[in-house]
Structures are given as C-alpha cells and as structure tokens.
Amino acid sequence: MTLDQLHLLFFKNYDEANLAFGPGINCFVGDNGSGKTNLLDAIYYLALTKSAFAGADAQSIKQGADFFVVKGKFSTPALERPETIQVSMRAGQKKTITHDKQPYDRLADHIGRYPAVLISPYDTDLIRQGSEERRRYFDSLQSQLDHEFLELLIQYNGLLRQRNATLKQGTGSHGFDTLYLQALDDQLAPVGESLSALRVTFLTQFIPVFQRHYAQLADGREQVVLEYKSQLPGQNFRHLLLANERRDLLLQRSTTGPHRDDFVFLMDGLPVKTYASQGQQKSFAIALKLAQFELLAGKPQPGGAAPTKPLLLLDDIFDRLDDKRIARLLQLVADQTFGQVFLTDTNLARTDQALAGVSSDIRRFEVRAGNVAAI
Ligand SMILES: Nc1ncnc2c1ncn2[C@@H]1O[C@H](COP(=O)(O)OP(=O)(O)OP(=O)(O)O)[C@@H](O)[C@H]1O
Ligand SMILES: [Mg+2]
User: Fold this and answer.
1) Is 36 a pocket residue for ligand 1 (Cβ < 6 Å)?
2) How do the domains of the chain map onto residue ranges?
C-alpha cells in the first residue's frame, strides 16, 4: 500500500498543501518549526484517525481557522483504482472520516485498514512515563492487529465508565445500589478476562520479534526483556472485583482489572527507565516500533487480501542514535524490509549521505514555514 497524494487545508501550520509522493523514500527537510513533523502527523491521521501528538483534534486546526481537512489518496496492488481517505473537523463539531466520500458508521471500522508506524523522539515517553502510556500504546497496536480485541476494549471501557459512575453515586444522597454494581460486574468480568488473555497471546508473539530487533540494532550488546504485569491471568476477575468492592466504593473508582495492567521493560535485568542511557532507551523504543511494523506487515487484510506493509514514518531518526545504529536501521531500509517510508531531517546533506547506499526511489521535499515543495 502506498500513499500517493496528500492534500491539507488549515492543518496545524499549513494553510494549504498538495503533495505527490513516490513509492520509496520521501524525505521532508527543513528548519526547526517549519512543519516537517506536522506532515507526518497528517499521514498518521489518515491511518489512525487521530494525531500522534496533539491531545484534542481541535489543536490540529490552524490558529485562526475554524476547520481542517487532511485528504490522502492510497493505492493497493490488489485494487485497481486508488482509494481516498479524508479526515476533517470543524471547531466544536465531531470529526468525520470518509472512505471514497462515504462516512464510516464507526471510526473503529477504519482502524487497521491503512496501517502506519511512527518512530519519533517522543517514543521514549513509553519508557519514561506511567503505565497509562504503555497500555495506550499496546492497546492501539493490538486494536490494529485484531478487530476482536478492539471491540472488547470498547465494550470494556464502556462498562468501566458505568461502573465508576455507579461507584461515585454510591456515597451520594440517593444511596447505593449494590445489585446494579454486581450486574455490571457480571458483564465486566468475562470481557476483562478475555482482554487479558488476548494481551498474553499477543505478547507471546510480540516479545521474540522485539528482542530480535533490539539485538540487531544494538549488535547484541544488551539483553532486553518485556514482561506483562497484571493481576488477572489465572484469577477469576469476578471474584477479584467482589474482593475489592469495599475499597472501590471508598475510592470511588475501580482498582482492579486490565485497565491497571502494565508492561515492564528491563535491560540486563534492570529497569530501562532508570538504568539505560538515552541512546539505549531510544533503541529500545525503536525495537518496539520495528516489532510493531513486522507484526502489522504480516496481518492479513479484510476479505482475505494479501498483507500490506505499513507506511513507515521516521521523525528525527538521526537524533541520539550512534552511527552504527543508524547504519543498521538504514540497512533495513536498503534491504527493502519496509515499503513506503516518510522521514524528516533538518539537514539535507546528512539525509543524502545516510541514504547514499540505498537504491529505492528517493524523493526530497523542502519544508519552509508551512510551505512544502518537491526539490
Ligand atoms: N494549530 C496550529 N496552528 C498553527 N501553527 C501550529 C499549530 N499546531 C502546531 N503549529 C506550529 O507548527 C510548527 C511546526 O511544527 P513541526 O513540529 O511540524 O516542526 P518541525 O519542522 O518538525 O520542527 P523540528 O525540526 O523542531 O522537529 C510549530 O512552530 C508549531 O507552533
Ligand atoms: Mg519535528
């Protein structure tokens, strides 16, 4: 699958942009703050229907404008004609996503159809920040790989919201309806257990791929481990909910369940967060993303179509990695491991030098204060 054209209107620092991409490597080069990462984010929007960086969609509307449009034309070998995906939003209104001008009934129906993997300097947040960041990352990845997981997650989050709202009412003036809480728990328990079981299955697939990528990138220097931390496997979730009911009522929130799971990252037996250097942390995050790429690239498409390689978005990849690690990463680009690649850099000469040995089709775009043109 390739993104052949991108059209932006009032997206972040762009008034308007129209770009035609090549099937190989597309490089965005420009100064700090010119809008390179914003272009990757626009592509990310087409794949995942949301920004990789901004919290609220409204932040992606250009200052002073009241709507944005991101439109992309994709082509797939299996399909004869290109498909157009458009994401748009008007301030104060709901975002809309259309596929060949047809709106989706649910955003969830779009997820996973146009896969993309972003490698960015913010990836180390996965290591440095709290468990929520890691859950969000793995949930998003698993949702792209497995529609059943996404449906269960939506169901679980809905039930959890109801449960927490009920717990909050518990101490209010209307008294508390334990029967209602238990009825919710009857529904929540099997969904939570299934979610946790799917996380276990997913990790047995993911971990060896991740470890192989780390070993390749770091040339076997450090050993990395990823562990699933959860109260659930082997436990009856219904019993756990009951056992914690008093505490939950007191704290007015649900203190057990897969929404509290974590993923533990270790390097040579010690926490990556406190032990590993910045470059090692960056390598760890890149290995996670390369494993993500490999799993997504192997996923059969809807209707039994052949798997498609995700778009690879490389933001500031030359930052913090030593030359050997950059060379091993670019070797993957040269080996045609990836399909279409979009990368950003502030320095054209460095990009050209790094890609000197790569035989793919290479296109360069100069980005200057919200304007972008092929060079
Ligand atoms: N909603 C918005 N309206 C207007 N400008 C915005 C909006 N959101 C972000 N920007 C601006 O877009 C500019 C470019 O951001 P971007 O992150 O794409 O730069 P960059 O080229 O990747 O820079 P760097 O090399 O520093 O990573 C920033 O100066 C930012 O203030
Ligand atoms: Mg940037």
Assistant:
1) yes
2) 1-115+303-375, 134-298
